[in-house]
Amino acid sequence: MHSFPKMKKNIFMLIEAFSEAFGLILSADADLYEILWLSIQVSLTALLISIALGLPIGTTLAIANFPGKTICITVINSLMGMPPVVIGLLVYLALSRSGPFGVFGLLYTPTAMVIAQMLLITPIIAALTYQVMEDLHKEYRDLFFSLSIPLDKAVAAYLWDARYSLITAVLAGFGRAISEVGAVMIVGGNIDHLTRVMTTAIALETSKGELSVALGLGIVLLVLALVVNGLVTTVRTRARHYGYA
Amino acid sequence: MRHPIIKQLSFVALCSFSIFSFADSIIVQSTTSTKNSGLYDYILPKVSTDIGIKVNVVAVGTGQAIKNAQRCDGDVLLVHAKPSEERFVAQGFGIERFDLMYNDFVIIGPSDDPALIKGSNDVSEALKKIAVAEAIFTSRGDDSGTHKAEVRLWKDSTIDPTKASGQWYRETGSGMGATLNIAVGMNAYALTDRATWTKFGNKGDFQIHVEGDQKLFNQYGVILVNPENCPNVNAAAGQKLIDWLLSKTGQDAIASYQVNGNQLFYPNAR
Amino acid sequence: MREIRHSGQPNLQIRINNLCLDMRGSRLLDQIDLILKQPGVTMILGPNGAGKSLLLKCIHGLLFPTWGSIDFDGLNKNPKQAMVFQKPILLRRSVMDNMRFADQGTQTDTELEQALDSVQLLEKIDHPATQLSGGEQQRLALARALLTKPDLLLLDEPTASLDPASVVIIEKLIQQATQQHIKSIFISHDIGQAKRLSADVIFLNRGQVVEYSDAASFFSDPHSDEARAFLSGEIVL
């Protein structure tokens, strides 16, 4: 029973982490809210840009026929599995002062983190949009042809009728963005009060050996994810109840 | 939908320009050991009040910090690997290197001390014992200042631990804190700077086994990145920061930083 | 129940010229030559796999024939078509929103409600369309097809496996459509239904037209062995 005291200690640490987390939330710790707010802003901005790019890409791939379409789909599906660190490295090299976009001085700014996260999640949103839209396109295609629905109205109908599935795709993107650490660490630099977000703060506290603080921050992030997911699930459940999803 | 997008984009625009609109804001490429020790959290507010400069610290390994600075992604370099720093200056990437402060390295390990090195002040002897006992030793393995110091110490003890890489010699390729977490998890020995260890929160039953050897001396230096090589460098603000660090005020500030009553860094600017 | 007031194209003529359709290396429709002049319902009969749906899709333009062509003659060389699919395709929206989408804003809500009333769906107006029963879904699909005021109505087994009440409603609407000079082409497996509705009959087997004649002579005196076997309920190979 050599491991018993260690186990007991770990359970104690977990309790400590939870009390740390709720202490942080309840005390309205200014640093915590700054970090949390930056996390949300960076990931939300990246998400909005990714939606603006990924939705049209996915929809085009689903609806249009053009040479090289299969290759495009394969490429996007592969990009979905791109490790964040690699994306971080590419963005770092691009934004570095000695890199091609160095003159803009974007490295170690929230903008750099937005760019990295945007590159990370655009393929995800595009690929998931493609899947959702392709299914719907197969379902509706003949009807739209039959009713001579113009393309713009057809696309609008696809987007509207797939909205609940698309919300899930978008949520997957947001989850990936806000939980990502490798890329934002490299391009953001984890600078206090400038580019420190939840995940890099967790990494920092872990490296300082402050495991319960790190876990506490993790719990805060988890609570955020739970709230967002809970909202979307509620919406989707209602939609499914009415047969709209 | 339109409204929040605009809001978000303007936020991004604000953030990207804030770093410039704050004319005296600079980036210091530094090491995880200084950052994890809490030194910056202690002295940077003083820097801000004294000379009005906002200092943004990027903490990576010394090797990576030097490479980042060579790529012009920083204004000031504050690291601890003197030969590499001197090469950085000699190659024209930096203006001049100044001694800033020192502390020392220590070897930490589990309290049951499988290699029986406790209380030693001969680091070469201790490393030999670890090698003979094949006790697990975690190395940074990331070309950082601490890693470079560790490589030098093994060389002095005439042992090549890399032959046992993956066996008892385990290179984590991670920062100081991460490596300490791994050492604690694997019941392994590790070389660390004293500051990081003192501030480290996940010590378990680990303690310092070897300290006090002259060879464990850990010198930090500070260098202004050469604006001739990197026109974007905020040389005026960077120089101001270096002047402040080397001044009596700065040196006193460094000396006064304590954790649990222990002084972590010893200023030694000349 | 209200009637739909709409006037189709009285003299619509459909000419199918030497139409062939190949898919994945096999010939699914083989040299189909037909001239459909008669008003009313043209019934397409034939065993499974005869190519009935494919022919309908070619007429509608959903499939391109490998050879041959389809021409329309009459007041309009490009008659307005509507199609009702065997498995109704409904948007994931309410019954009324399905109507609105198909109509694209040319009619008032009251007119759309009248159309729904004609298929007895007025009380389901706010129901999600995909949650209606099979019969209700097909009635909605038919009401929606008629909304577009077609000259030519194509129906691919619209009443297969529906409840009798829905079949009655659908058949009644198609008869009304005929009165309003809407030409229909109808695929059915139900010989009784074919007798009730059809003006003329195309009998297809293995992608070829085996027989084309007016309904009275087809049902009383079929020429081909296949049609005879089909009408007497035997399996046609």
Explain what the structure shows.
The complex is a heterotrimer of chains A (245), B (270) and C (237). Chain A has 245 residues and is mostly helical. Chain A has one domain: MetI-like fold (Orthogonal Bundle), CATH 1.10.3720.10. Chain A is built from ten helices and no strands. The longest helix of chain A is centred in the middle third of the chain and has 37 residues. The model of chain A has no long low-confidence stretch (mean pLDDT 88). Chain B has 270 residues and is α/β, with parallel strands linked by helices. Chain B has two domains: 151 residues, Periplasmic binding protein-like II (D-Maltodextrin-Binding Protein, domain 2); 113 residues, 3-Layer(aba) Sandwich (D-Maltodextrin-Binding Protein, domain 2). In chain B, helix 10 crosses helix 11. Chain C has a domain of 150 residues: P-loop containing nucleotide triphosphate hydrolases (Rossmann fold, 3-Layer(aba) Sandwich), CATH 3.40.50.300. In chain C, helix 2 crosses helix 3. The longest helix of chain C has 16 residues. Chain C is globular. Chain C starts with 12 loop residues before the first strand and ends in a 6-residue tail after the last helix. Classes of the chains: A mainly alpha (245), B alpha/beta (270), C alpha/beta (237). At the A-B interface, helix 2, helix 5 and helix 9 of A face helix 1, helix 2, strand 2 and helix 8 of B.
- In the sheet with the most strands of chain C, the strands line up as 5-6-7-3-8-9
The second-level CATH architecture of the domain at 13-88 and 152-163 and 170-231 in chain C is 3-Layer(aba) Sandwich
Question: Could you give the order of the helices and strands of chain C?
Answer: EEEHEEHHHEHEHEEHH
Give the N-to-C terminal Cα separation of chain C: 43 Å
Order of helices and strands of chain B: HEHHEHEHEHEHEHEHEEHHEEE
